[in-house]
Specification:
Number of helices: 14
Strand order of the largest sheet: 4-12-11-10-7-5-6
Mean pLDDT: 96
Strand content: 15-25%
Structural class: alpha/beta
Helix content: 25-40%
Length: about 450
């Protein structure tokens, strides 16, 4: 007799919460005061058990839209044919490496595949240490690079947060280049270079330990740091300081890559630099677990030490088929240009709201990666944390999903699926206006 798969019970949200508390990781949080049970996704929307549609403005994983039919079909077709590891020859993996590397500057041509952004950043660390024969790392304050033990050590967002153990000795933290509330502001045309000078302090601290820097990690747009767009000139100066000290420069594109930045396919391109290593995750597989590292040939060559890098699932034919489909959708549906167009419209609308609502202190972003920082006072910049969370709950009640981030949890972060439309943007701006009006009383 053919095997039958047992049906999954249709439980109430309350029953699911109870079972989560009994059987799941107890540190796993849930969104909103009253968590939502989602059963379906399509395009820019999620649907709950009662069929209610929610506009998803925070999921940058389902990059080309929830359950995009072309991506689903590619995965289904390959899954029905073959899935195995990379020690066998298969067209999909070389085709994907070829297509992915073609999106980068020519200097970056060697691809390593992983299962997540965390794995990509972890592997980048191994490669950097092997190439430089050094150990110490420079990161940017409030950065998050992944959930493995080594990535927690590289993430001030975690090691300086609740439950963290503080900065490890081999990690140096560079000042966050925030030109809204940092030391150097938007009116300083040299703010980027001034912030980059702090790497010299970090390098000196490494040398004082008798060590050398192996790598400088920096997100191309800062995510957990509060959707911070790097000031012009920051990466050129920072990379110069890092390379002069013998370190490699790693661009973390896990949140902002694959055309989301609008003007560029990769957000680091806005700074006019070519990193030594780039890491990817989240949007790469549209919800399928994938990640990747791309680097220069000479750095990849130095990683040949006799210890093989083999990953059972990374680069399997199904993952590569899905990854190829994502690249096809981005290109054929012109999603990078779409992100630019809709993102510019959102920025214009948000700045108009800023002119009428004093809670909005700053609007910043690129393409469909935008932050709205809320403050109680535009002079003191006192964070409006409670108000930001009230806005999130208001929007959820009006079927729009959003969340907050930043060191003070007061930045509304907008990073919707790339199919987010002009009509979606208009609806969001209308409801956000209402949220601020209600808060004002």
């Amino acid at each position: 007799m053919p095997t039958t798969v047992a049906p999954i019970p249709n439980r109430s949200p309350e029953d699911i919460i109870a079972l989560r508390r009994k059987h799941l990781n107890p540190t796993l949080s849930m969104s909103y005061k009253q968590p939502l049970k989602m059963v379906r996704g399509a395009g820019a929307y999620l649907y709950d058990q009662d069929g209610n549609a929610y506009l998803d403005m925070v999921n940058n994983v389902c990059h080309v839209g929830h359950c995009h039919p072309a991506v689903v079909a590619a995965g289904q077709a390959q899954m029905a044919q073959l899935n195995t590891n990379t020690r066998y020859l298969h067209d999909n993996i070389v085709e994907y490496a070829k297509r992915l590397s073609a999106t980068f500057p020519s200097e970056l041509s060697v691809v390593f595949l992983t299962n997540s952004g965390t794995e990509a950043n972890d592997l980048a660390l191994r490669i950097a240490k092997t190439y430089t024969q050094a150990n110490d790392i420079i990161v940017v304050d409030h950065a998050y690079h992944g959930n493995s033990p080594t990535m927690i050590e590289l993430s001030p967002y975690k090691f300086d947060g609740k439950g963290g153990r503080g900065r490890p000795a081999h990690i140096q933290v560079a000042e966050i280049p925030d030109d809204y509330r940092g030391r150097f502001r938007k009116d300083d045309p040299e703010a980027g270079a001034h912030y980059a000078e702090d790497l010299q302090r970090a390098i000196a601290a490494i040398h004082a330990r008798g060590e050398k820097p192996a790598a400088f990690y920096c997100e191309s747009v800062l995510g957990c740091g509060g959707q911070v767009v790097l000031p012009k000139g920051y990466l050129p100066a920072a990379y110069s300081h890092a390379r002069a000290a013998g370190a490699v420069c790693i661009a973390d594109e896990v949140q902002v890559g694959f055309g989301r930045a609008g003007d560029y396919f990769w957000a680091f391109e806005a700074q006019g630099v070519v990193p030594d290593i780039v890491t990817m995750g989240k949007p790469i597989g549209n919800g399928h677990p994938m990640g990747a590292v791309v680097t220069r040939p000479e750095i990849a060559q130095a990683f040949i030490t006799g210890m093989e890098y083999f990953n059972t699932f990374a680069g399997n034919p199904v993952s590569c088929a899905i990854g190829l489909a994502v690249l096809d959708v981005i290109q054929q549906e012109h999603l990078q240009a779409h992100a630019k167009q809709v993102g510019d419209f959102l920025m214009q609308g948000l700045n108009e709201l800023k002119s009428r609502h004093g809670l909005i202190g700053d609007v910043r972003g690129t393409g469909l990666f935008i932050g709205v920082e809320l403050v109680k006072d535009r002079t003191s910049l006192e964070p409006a944390t409670a108000e930001a969370n009230a806005v999130i709950e208001f929007l959820k009640a009006h079927h729009i999903l959003l969340s907050t981030d930043g060191p003070y949890d007061n930045v509304l972060k907008l990073k919707p699926p790339m199919v987010f439309s002009m009509e979606n943007a208009k609806e969001f701006l209308l409801q956000l206006d209402q949220a601020f009006t209600c808060l004002r009383g």
